[in-house]
Each structure stands twice: as structure tokens, then as C-alpha cells.
Amino acid sequence: MKAQEAEVEAEKVLKMKCVEREEQRLRADVIEPAKAEKQAAFARAEAEAAPILERGKAQVEVLRRLYVEVQTGGEAAFAVFMAEKLPELRSPSVPWRAWTSTAWS
Questions:
Q1: Taking CA 54 as the corner, what is the angle to CA 35 and CA 44, rounded to the nearest 5 degrees?
Q2: In the prediction, which pLDDT does 41 show?
Q3: For residues 29-40, b (16+ Cβ closer than 10 Å) or e, as one string?
Q4: Strand, coil or helix: what is 4?
Q5: Which residues contact 77 (CB under 8 A, 6 or more apart)?
Q6: What is the pLDDT of residues 6-65, one digit of tens each?
Q7: CA 7 to CA 1: how far, in whole Å?
Q8: What's the distance, CA 97 to chain centroid?
């Protein structure tokens, strides 16, 4: 009886060691490489986003300054601003030729 209990206990310890070894193998083969890839992907995403973010910040600053200039300049400044933007506002976003050549055929 004691021999069987000792054998069962030894078998249990052996199985636990096998489980620990398998956990270590999985950690080394799967988990750690996945963590490294996740960190690398995050770094790549940040690197790709940086110029976009900075361009956005620069555009905000330009618009903020333009707003201040138009506000401080009053109606005359607004009129000049609109005169500069008028060609953009009048031009269609789709050229007329695109509408006439294919849309009505």
C-alpha cells in the first residue's frame, strides 16, 4: 500500500514537472515571440502615425492663426479671406466634363 502511494506521488510529481516544462516551452516558443511582435507592431504604428499627427497639429495651428487674424481684422479681413477662397468655393469638386461625357450617355 505504501509503495503504491509512493508510486502515485512520484507519478504526480513527474506529471507536474512535465506540465511546468511544457509551460516553459510554450512561453519561449509562443508567448514571448508574440509579445515581441506586439511591441514591434505598436512601435511601427506609432512611427507611421507620428507624421500624420504632426501634420494635423500644424494644420490646427495654421487655422488658429488664421482665425485670430480674421477676428482681429474685422469685416475687411473676412472679405479678403473670402475673396482668396472664392475660386475654391466656385470650382466644382467633379469636373463638368466628367458629368457630361459619361453620366448622361
A1: 20
A2: 97
A3: eeeeeeeeeeee
A4: helix
A5: 69, 70, 71
A6: 888 889 989 999 999 999 998 888 889 999 999 999 999 999 999 999 999 999 999 999
A7: 10
A8: 38
